[in-house]
Every structure is written in C-alpha cells, then in structure tokens.
UniProtKB/TrEMBL annotation:
Protein's name in the database: Pre protein translocase subunit Sec66-domain-containing protein
Source organism per UniProt: Penicillium malachiteum
Transmembrane region(s): 6-28
Biased composition, class Basic residues, residue ranges: 243-252
Biased composition (Polar residues): 202-226
Pfam family, one: Sec66
Classification via PANTHER family: TRANSLOCATION PROTEIN SEC66
Region (Disordered): 190-252
Keywords: Membrane, Transmembrane, Transmembrane helix
Domain of life: Eukaryota
Signal peptide: none
GO biological process, one term: post-translational protein targeting to membrane, translocation
GO CC terms: Sec62/Sec63 complex
Length: 252
C-alpha cells in the first residue's frame, strides 16, 4: 500500500506538469494566432481580386429575374478581370522581393520588431496562395493559360509604365519650350546690349609703327636756303688753282 502511494505522487506530479504545459501551449497558440490575425495587413485591400469575385459570384437567380436590366457577365469580361488581378499580383510579388532583403537585415540588427517580420511573412504566404489561385482560375477558362497569364500581365505592366513615362515627357515639353524662349530672349538682349556699348565707345586708331626703311636709309644732304630768291653754291677749285674761292650769286 505504501509503495502505491509513493508511486502515485510522482505520477500525479507528472500529470499536473504535462497538463499545465499543454494548457500553456494551447493558450500560447491561440494568443499567437489572435495576434497574427489582428496585425495590420502588409498590403491594402486587393481591389482587383474583389472585383473578379464579385463578377464571378453574381447570383444566377437575380440575373434571370433581371435579365433585361442586368445581363449575365460574359466570359471575356471575367478573363479581363482575372488578367487585371494577375497584374496586381505581379506588382505585389515584386514589392515583396525588393523589400525582403532590407527587412531581414533590419531585423538582424534589431532595428525593427518581430511583429513587422510576422506581417511580412504572412503577406508572402498570402501571395503564394494568390498566385496558385490565379493559375487555377486561368486553367479553368483555357487549358494552359495559367502558364502564360502572368507573362501577359507583365507585358501590360510594362506598357502602362511606358505610357506613363511618355505622358510625363509630354508634360515637360511645354515647360522646356517656355524655358528655351526665356533663355533665347535673355541671350538676344545681352547680345544687343554688347553691340550698343561697342558702338558708343570711341574707336582708337592703332599706333603707327616706325618705318624700318626710313631708319636704315641715310638721309639726303639738305640744301641750305637763305631765301626764296637766293641760293648759295660753294664749289671747290681744282688743286693747283690756288686757295681762292669764288662766290657766285644767282637767281632761283
């Protein structure tokens, strides 16, 4: 009897311990699931998906009753709505891929909390399910379309980006024209101002450089003029004729 009592105490302790651990684990999982559900979603509401489901799940009885007013949704409209849904999925998947590395680095450094990382993981998981759903829906319409629907959606996105850039460039054309006209008017005004200042300033004649020929050529003998009517000529007599000089006076 004593042996059973001595064994019952450890078993009771183990039972209480296991029960408390199970209760704690259950409460922890419920709290974690509630916290994850209460976290703010990473992306806003998926409007394209909501539109597609609204078109897909219209009440057939209401369509039959109001057939004249609201005809049934054609398949082409549903395909277009599904394609729009795929384009939004591509944008979100690309955003997650570009943000994952930076967010992981910030989480390792402790710059962000675990709640943000949980939101990101939940968004990533939701997008995986969303892509699978879109592929299945596309294959329901046309077999094999699920393999090419995202390629078509990517081409649509590139076309939208190209159109947006073209619109931005067209908006800048008017601004550039206005800037160029102002620049042209300013340049013309400055040019005319320089011309007017150049015409108003006196023209300076260049300094005359000395004539090198006049410097090197010996000057001719000058004629001594006493007056307009007389000129004195001095002639030397030949040797042997005496040292007498003859002066002559003549009229000019």
């Amino acid at each position: 009897m004593v042996n059973w009592l001595s064994l019952a105490v450890p078993f009771a302790y183990l039972g209480i311990l296991i029960g408390s651990l199970a209760t704690f684990s259950s409460l922890y999982r419920k709290r974690k699931a509630h916290k994850a559900a209460s976290l703010e979603p990473w992306f806003p509401a998926h409007l394209q998906r909501d539109i597609y489901f609204s078109l897909l799940h219209l009440d057939p009885s209401a369509q039959k009753e109001n057939q004249k007013k609201t005809p049934a949704v054609p398949e082409s409209v549903l395909k277009a709505a599904l394609l729009r849904r795929a384009t939004e999925d591509i944008r979100r998947v690309l955003a997650l891929r570009s943000q994952k590395q930076a967010l992981s680095t910030l989480l390792q450094r402790g710059s962000v909390g675990d709640d943000l990382w949980q939101r990101f993981l939940r968004a990533e998981k939701e997008m995986e399910e969303e892509v699978k759903d879109v592929v299945a829906e596309a294959n329901d319409y046309v077999q094999g379309w699920g393999q090419t629907i995202f390629q078509s959606a990517n081409e649509m996105i590139q076309n939208e980006i190209y159109r947006k850039r073209m619109a931005e460039q067209q908006e800048k054309v008017a601004e550039e024209k206005e800037w160029w006209s102002k620049k042209k008017a300013t340049t013309k005004e400055q040019f005319m101002k320089e011309l007017n200042e150049g015409a108003a300033s006196p023209v300076q004649s260049p300094a005359k450089s000395p004539n090198p020929a006049a410097t090197l050529t010996p000057s001719a003998p000058s004629t001594v003029q006493g007056s307009d009517d007389e000129a004195v000529l001095v002639e030397a007599e030949p040797s042997g004729g005496g040292g007498k000089k003859k002066k002559g006076k003549g009229k000019k």
